[in-house]
Write a structure and sequence with these properties.
Length: 147
C-alpha cells in the first residue's frame, strides 16, 4: 500500500474518534478527577475515573483540544476500561514508549487502533497532544494512591 494511503487510513481513525469521541462525558461518581493542559497546543482536558477494588470500573474525559489530543483520549478510555490500576499504569508507559518511537506499535490487539497515532512520532510537538490524556490519568492515579 502506498504511504499516502496508509496515512489517510490512519487519519480516518483519528477523525472518527475526534468527531464521535468515546466516553466523552463527566463521571458524577468518579473517584478520581484530574485536569491536564497542554500549553504548546492549548489542549485542555479533564479525565475522570471510577476506581473500585483497584480496578478502573469506568474512565471518561471532557474538554477541548486538537484532533490528536481528543482522539487519543477517546482511544485511551476504550483501552483502559476495566483494567487494574497496575495494568493501566503499565499500558500508559507502553503507549508513551510507542508514541515517542522507542517501541513499535503492535499490529493487532487492543493497541491496534492507537497505531493510528503513529504519524505523531515524527512530530515531537504533537507527542504532547497525544500523551496529554494518558499523563493526566497517570497523575490522577498517583495522587489517589497517596490517599
Ligand atoms: Zn493538541
Amino acid at each position: 500500500m502506498p504511504v499516502s494511503l496508509i496515512s489517510d487510513l490512519y487519519s480516518e481513525v483519528i477523525l472518527e474518534h475526534y468527531k464521535q469521541p468515546h466516553n466523552r462525558h463527566e463521571l458524577p461518581d468518579a473517584t478520581l478527577k484530574e485536569q491536564g493542559y497542554n500549553e504548546s497546543c492549548g489542549d485542555d482536558i479533564v479525565v475522570y475515573a471510577k476506581v473500585i477494588d483497584d480496578k478502573i470500573a469506568d474512565v471518561t474525559f471532557t474538554g477541548r483540544g486538537c484532533a490528536i489530543s481528543q482522539s487519543s483520549a477517546s482511544m485511551m478510555t476504550d483501552v483502559l476500561q476495566g483494567k487494574t490500576v497496575a495494568e493501566a499504569e503499565h499500558l500508559i508507559e507502553e503507549f508513551k514508549k510507542m508514541i515517542t518511537g522507542e517501541k513499535e506499535f503492535p499490529e493487532e490487539g487492543e493497541f491496534e487502533e492507537l497505531a493510528a497515532l503513529k504519524g505523531v512520532i515524527k512530530l515531537p510537538i504533537r507527542v504532547k497532544c497525544a500523551t496529554l490524556a494518558w499523563n493526566t490519568l497517570r497523575l490522577g492515579l498517583e495522587k489517589s494512591e497517596l490517599k
